[in-house]
Specification:
The protein has 13 helices and eleven strands. The protein is an alpha+beta fold.
Length: 404
Amino acid sequence: SLPLRLGRRPRRLPLLAPLTSASHMSLAAVMERPAQWQEQLWALSRPFWACSGLCYRDHLDAELMFANGGLSYNATTLQRNLVVANAITSEFLGELKQQCLDEKQQYDRQGSQAPQKKRNRWAVYTNPDRIQHNLTSTMAFMREHPECRTALLPKSYLRALAVLQHTVSEDTADTCRPEEERRHSDVFEGVLTKSGVNSQLVKDAHRSEWSIEGRAFTMQDHKAAPNDTSEDRKAVIAAFQHNLITALEQFLLDYCKRRKLTGQGTQQLMQAVTTQMSQAGLANLEQSSQASRIFVSGEGLEQRTAYNVSTMLTDAKGEILKLSIYCMKTRFSSYMSPDGMVAFADAEDEDAGMGPIFCASDSYLYQYATLSFAPRPMPDGTERIEVVVLDLLDEIHILPVEPL
């Protein structure tokens, strides 16, 4: 039935401004979260790394062994959610394993050597010990996520949480690895630093909206004059990039200074945060999303992306960084679901009536996630950067065309 809403339980938290005029909303209206709600979230959630991995593993094993023996009438909401989360996380990791095996087989058939970073990725998803580590760490996150304790969650939403937590954790861990062990080919640069900012963020800076501790940056404030040349436009974009990157680096450097991070820890945190503020973060959100599987089109189609980074005080971890990522598609006039696209591709008769379905112009696709970043002191005096998914919203709102 329409409108469609996927990947979220029926209860809607009062987090956002009304979406009926989505294409005209300000960045602040979209990104703000009530402070009271954030405090409640952290009050519900125990520190993600408050005890050792063995402690989490013991709790998880007990709960999952209970579940494997059959859920009783008295099973808690958390236990029921964990049963589903364990199954879908294993399924997701199995899909990644098969992808890696297929890639390796293709290289073997061609008799060519795969790049080192690709071989590093294969090892993550084909080695049994690493697969188990990925499953355990993701389940530890699910166990501590407040929403898993308060309501039975749809399978699609649990999968989205697990996929997003895993992908952002992998990206963040990659910034802490030696170059020869990394799985991604990210390049970093900077204005105040030599390699603190993901280069993809710099290249795409003018295509998104940004907020740094409440200070807005958008190219909408730099409208082109009628007589501007392409060189003029390039100069405006370069100036915007410089101002944005300088402000972002200063904000992150100030945070690292307050947290007394080492030089290495500072670079790792800056790289981890700016990677999620680039196309990599948006790709992670898309990978976990149901909305990204809907293909939309239309002459007036708009896509807006925004990133909001700020600080937040918590009892468990002290001052942390909070990053919100937002993507919305509006003003489209037709769409195709995954099933519809498969049927259309398989249809032998082009006139079979399959194809895009028309919809109302105020339909929208909406994706939103909030991540937290915090340094964790290690026994050797270094730091490890921890990332946790705080909130995730994935909404498909398709309205039928009104009859004439």
